[in-house]
Specification:
The complex is a heterodimer of chains A (112) and B (113).
Chain A lengths: L3 E4 L2 E4 L5 E7 L5 E8 L3 E10 L2 E4 L7 E2 L9 E3 L8 E8 L7 E2 L3 E5 L1
Chain B lengths: L2 E3 L4 E5 L4 E3 L2 E3 L5 E7 L5 E7 L5 E3 L5 E5 L4 E6 L8 E8 L6 E3 L3 E6 L1
The chains are: A mainly beta (112), B mainly beta (113).
């Protein structure tokens, strides 16, 4: 089954403790992206990648890192999480830029 | 600044009536336009897109959208709403030649039986 898989689905952690949210897609898509969803703000793009080793900033990249060492994986790293990063996070992928994105089921992060 | 606006937080419609969810954008060039739907505790699902061509685009589950270049709008429509259409709807705009994507804030659709 074609899918985007994120882990974990839920995480409660404390300020400053480094964490990684993994994202993997099995569709051989070139494009991958991370978003955060906050009430009243919709989805905001954090980082995106157009190919292996090619990443670029979205609208809200501060406090986040990404890497794209393999085509299928695009982990999101919070090196020193803070409470304002408490949010619902989505990973998405698409084959080409003009094609729709496939979304994972989301990761709900709570940072205390 | 580039932006996507969904002017209604919520749209209420009776089952069987037509529905419209509005989207306008301010993005340079000729961007790609998308509509997605989100059900509780799930990721977004693609409904339809406009790349080029006919201004009326048909998509999944009986939805369609009308592109208006002069008004930079991309309104989502359905001729006859179902209770099961109740969900959160997002308009998205992507720059051509890249992958920067802007989303609207979302519109919650309630369809009453």
């Amino acid at each position: 089954e074609a899918q985007v898989t994120q882990n974990p689905r839920y995480l409660i952690t404390v300020t400053g403790k480094k964490l990684t949210v993994t994202c993997s897609q099995n569709m051989n898509h070139e494009y991958m992206s991370w978003y955060r969803q906050d009430p009243g703000l919709g989805l905001r793009q954090i980082y995106y990648s157009m190919n292996v080793e090619v990443t670029d900033k979205g609208d809200v990249p501060e406090g986040y890192k990404v890497s794209r060492k393999e085509k299928r994986n695009f982990p999101l790293i919070l090196e020193s999480p803070s409470p304002n990063q408490t949010s619902l996070y989505f990973c998405a992928s698409s084959f080409r830029g003009h094609q729709p994105q496939h979304f994972g089921d989301g990761t709900r992060l709570s940072i205390l | 600044a580039q932006s996507v606006a969904q002017p209604e937080d919520q749209v209420n419609v009776a089952e069987g009536n037509p529905l419209t969810v509005k989207c306008t954008y301010s993005v340079s060039g000729n961007p790609y336009l998308f509509w997605y739907v989100q059900y509780p505790n799930r990721g977004l699902q693609f409904l339809l897109k406009y790349i080029t061509g006919d201004n009326l685009v048909k998509g999944s589950y009986g939805f369609e959208a009308e592109f208006n270049k002069s008004q930079t709008s991309f309104h989502l429509k359905k001729p006859s709403a179902l209770v099961s259409d109740s969900a959160l709807y997002f308009c998205a705009v992507r720059e051509t030649g890249g992958f920067k994507t802007l989303f609207g804030a979302g519109t919650r659709l309630f369809v009453k039986a």
